[in-house]
Amino acid sequence: MDKINQTSVSEFLLLGLSGYPKIEIIYFAFILAMYLVILIGNGVLIMASIFDSRLHTPMYFFLGNLSFLDICYTASSVPSTLVSLISKKRNISFSGCAVQMFFGFAMGSTECLLLGMMAFDRYVAICNPLRYPIIMSKVVYILMASVSWFSGGINSIVQTSLAMQLPFCGNNIINHFTCEILAVLKLACADISLNIITMVISNMVFLVLPLLVIFFSYMFILYTILRMNSATGRHKAFSTCSAHLTVVIIFYGTIFFMYAKPKSQDLIGQDKLQTSDKLISLFYGVVTPMLNPIIYSLRNKDVKAAVKYLLNRKPI
Question: Packing angle between helix 58-87 and helix 21-51, nearest 10 degrees?
């Protein structure tokens, strides 16, 4: 009888900041400016890593992948957010929501693995410099990046499929900027235990394991650096790691706050996300991809030199 009275949902309504109409135009301007920085900054990094032979190394190959990933992730969510802020068009189709959810989960999972791969690359470069060309050969680092992308895609397919197969009835209002998976799961009128279990497993594989790789890699790196006799060598080793470590702290700080905190009250009894949660989501979705190229450019002499070379090239 309950199923007879249920109404199938064909689209969702994204609230965003609809409760604060006076600041929506301010957020539109900020997000648009940050999105332009994301496209330009990450685009320049990708071009520099391709056209400057000095950057044809594993670290910059991973950095190019990270920049491309940030462009893909923001392209799946930011334009629709900008449209909703300026035109008040807040509805998104069921299939559109699924696509947005897929890209968000795929890019987030892949970025976690890429950051772990980059930490391992720094570990080998600093702790085993003589074996570095053998361990991190071109075949190896391309395979590492491919595994990251493939694993992130598979994880996203599983999570998105399980979420979109749930029945959605009655309430179709998502109190969020985008089709974030936890906000969507709260609208399901069915048991979501399987979704919660698979998300816990996903968190362990794509959040905790890469973080462990990063932690132990930097423990060995720190031990090796402290044993160096040359102050110049220590400074150079620290400088090569500082940009990556800064990105890791920002990325994991926001993503753990969003996804690894207890979700029982969010998924069962609470109907509205707090404004602070939305802003944390905005920080993760827009500010972090914007900061990545800035951090790597400001704290890396090779990248700065490559960007200058790229900008000073004379057109043929």
Answer: 160
